[in-house]
Amino acid sequence: MSKASFKMTATLSAVALSMAATVVLAGPAKAEELWDPYLRGVFEGQAAGALPPPGVYGELDNYWTSYGNYLNNNGTKEPGHLSALVEVPIVLWVPGIKILGADYAAAIGQPIDFTRTKLFGHTGGGNWGTYNTILVPGMLSWALPDHVFVRTGLTVLLDDASSTMGDVYKGKLTNGGAPSGNAYTTIQPDFGVSWLYDGWNLSVGTHYAIPVSGNKSNGINYRSAAQFSADYTVTKTIGAWTAGIGGEQENQFSRDTVTVNGVSVPGRQTSNYGVGPILGYQFANGVGVMGYWNHSFATKSDVAGDFFNLRLTAAF
Predict the structure, then answer these.
(1) Which burial class, exposed, middle or buried, applies to 285 when counting CB atoms under 10 A from its CB (0-12, 13-18, 19+)?
(2) Residue 186 CA to chain centroid, in angstroms?
(3) Reduced DSSP (H G I as helix, E B as strand, rest coil) percent helix, strand, coil of the chain, to 5
(4) Name one Pfam family in it (predicted).
(5) CA 233, 235, 236: angle at the middle one, nearest 5?
(6) Do the Cβ atoms of 78 and 102 come closer than 8 Å?
(7) DSSP secondary structure of 85-117
């Protein structure tokens, strides 16, 4: 499998920051975080279980969201809008080392985002910010019989975003600014499996984000529940072209924990699903381009609408 034919179909096991619910609702008792710990569907179109040949690779995801609705716990629409441009540069290193019979790799990413919100009477954004730095100290990929590949890894999201919900509560953001990240570290185990044969890529990539701490400010203690995410890919490559369909899901299996001045209030429990087409092209110089669009079809306690990602990949 050559670098060109692989099209850098593996990068970080999990780049973060899906657009979640919103910044601030009607009052402190309804405060919610802005960011989910995983960017919806960001790895659709890639081989979730495999790694490229040894080398250093670069990727830039240009991710645009336009979510015209917020759906509450009952799935009922509420007025509002959230849009964002998320730039996710990634460097992947595959040194050619074997561990337990698997290929080893490591990666780093530093997303930045430009966000606009108009939800629940709150308008904010119009500013750039850096999201939590993403480190993948290790991932391992095994090539199994019958063209099956399995990959596992660990992603760490550092508590170093340029602005957070804690800054909002403390009054540190002015001029309608919106938070650009989370005020806590996240640990995320990742697991992916792929069937790669005769140009086909059937892949499922899964991620389980576990917040290490909560968000405490001005009497508000907000702690996100762990969140499961998955990306799905069915594509066929013919010559330089790749086409197919992708999908994504995010689910919290319990509610977020929220207390205001020591009093518990209901937290949200997110779920969302989306699906859409994928189209890619591999240039002769080794640069790959892939674009895909997803539309939400089932959402609760989250924003819903459309996202588009244009991915550029190359071997250094």
Answers:
(1) exposed
(2) 13
(3) 5, 60, 35
(4) Phenol_MetA_deg
(5) 160
(6) no
(7) EEEEEEEEEE---EETTEEEEEEEE--EEEEEE
- State the Cα–Cα distance between residues 250 and 188, nearest whole angstrom: 14
Alpha-carbon torsion, ordered 92, 98, 99, 105, to 10 deg: 0
126-149 per-position pLDDT tens digit? 678 888 899 999 999 999 999 999
Give the separation between CA 235 and CA 44, rounded to whole angstroms.
10
Domains and CATH numbers, the chain: 3-315 (2.40.160.40)
Answer yes or no: are the C-beta atoms of 255 and 267 closer than 8 Å: yes
Q: What is the pTM of this model?
A: 0.85
Cα(95)–Cα(102) distance, rounded to whole angstroms? Answer: 12
Report how far residue 224's alpha carbon sits from residue 183's, in angstroms, rounded to the nearest whole number.
Answer: 11
User: Cβ distance 284 to 313 under 8 Å?
Assistant: no
Distance CA(131)–CA(6), nearest Å, equals 29
C-alpha–C-alpha distance, residues 129 and 126, integer Å: 10
**Parts of the chain with a pLDDT under 70:** 1-34, 68-69, 71, 75, 79-81, 118-126, 164-179, 214-220
